[in-house]
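Quarterly update from the structural biology core.
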Amino acid sequence: MKLSKNVLVGSLATTGMILGMVAPATTAFAATTSGLVGSDNKVTPTTDLKEGQDAGVLGGKDSDLAIAYDAGDGSTVGSATATSNANVTVVSGILTLDAVPDFGFGSGASGTTVNLKSNAATGDGVDGNNEGLLQVTESRSQTPGFTLSAQLGAFKDATTSDAVTTTSAFNLNLPKQGLVNAKGENIGKVGDQYTTGNVVSTGNDTSKTNIDGAATDVMDVSGDYTTGPISASYKDANSASLDIANGIGDGTAPGTAQSLKSEITWTLTAKPSTNAATPKA
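Predicted structure, tokenized:
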């Protein structure tokens, strides 16, 4: 499974499960109110304080206020209701790539290192998030492990996509981060687990044109770890940095300011389970 995103210096969602039959149609329920605002702007109780009265969609343009009525003298009170949704897709026995981060490094001089400025970046990648989240979900009971690699593509001119001439590679430095579950607890059952801390680099060919780099493991998980979401955060300034390649511009006044972009390809690879069922003939 591959997802691509950008490096630069990147709701209501519902899901469902098919349970083997078509679910029956359901009725949409609106909010209810136990108080009504009259033409004199005064609030009076509805006929049925317990069940209330249809108020329309909560916050809708033509809806009534969802009032929990209070007579003010201790004699009469009512309630207001509204409905919302909760959805989830339950996975079992599979490994999924859920989220990959964008990296924005602001500006810097050729041959220097710049820290992460934000997780906002633009370019050709479409899967990156602006929260710095790198996440995999493990639902295989044996937890046999997996690797997640990143390949840093050649940096190009952000406007023209022309190749950039350099005398060295760009290096995306991703220091070790704890691998945690949804509660922020480390996933390791016997000792903590971390990202690899490897450096992800572009290439640099003999003609000094910046080229795509090789894939480098960012996660290499094995051993005894918990199932569920497994994530690392690249949001703080010191959680990622970029070594800007040498040889960009000649350094003379009045100077230049060239925006560059690169695309990162993330590849999740499962380590095999040993309990796979034998396919039926």
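The first strand starts at residue 2 and ends at 8.
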